[in-house]
Amino acid sequence: MAEQHTPVALVTGAARGIGKGVAASLLGAGWSVAITDIDESAGQAAAEELAWLCAAGGRVEFIPMDVADELSVAACLERVEEDFGRLDGLVNNAGIADPDSGPVEQLSLEAWNHWLSTNLTGPFLVSKHFIGLLRESGGAIVNMASTRALQSEANTEAYASSKGGLLALTHALAMSLGSSVRVNAVSPGWIDTRSRQQQASDPLRPVDHLQHPVGRIGQPEDIGSLVAFLLSPAAAFITGQNVVADGGMTRKMTYVE
To answer: 109 pLDDT exceeds 50?
Structure first.
């Protein structure tokens, strides 16, 4: 009988928000999770908070990493190899969340490059360095894109471009890695990443929820459960895809009456 291993995932940008929700879902599904973030204090606090979710054999560990710094990414790889010895899933979630870059004629090259270096170059660098471990395990990658890669508001050129590029990187990697490593993207819509306490004390308007065909705004665990599926053997026939999780908003026709 083959030896059973607890699967190991790396989730970048997991100190808060969607990344933290993804880590929670994976821990609940029996994975061990290495969470990374550029914010060391928040990342360590997140790991401590998530520890109670660890199933038998699983564990959570925080590793500081700046996804836009190749030396930092290489150092993280060394830690994962030393502390876990394997990697079965990679979730490229780290990114600049604010989509508003102001009027395009005022957008500096420095700001443009900052968005792209974190949101697009980061996933490239992390994937590049961790593909070896993923090949060994027959693992999978999930890139966290956005519905803003498919539709836009004004003044979001840098963010939209970075997420659109991430979709292209996803299907390119899927073709390059073939049967050895599956690669997919998830494009969330409006996800309320505030704490439960904040959501209760300052609730969103009913109209915010009701404009979604499913009747509510998303929660991090909605994305977490989808990512857990895409990393699992149940999704073995899925690669090169972008899965939109937005409560139906991108399928909704909207006309001013």
So the answer is: yes
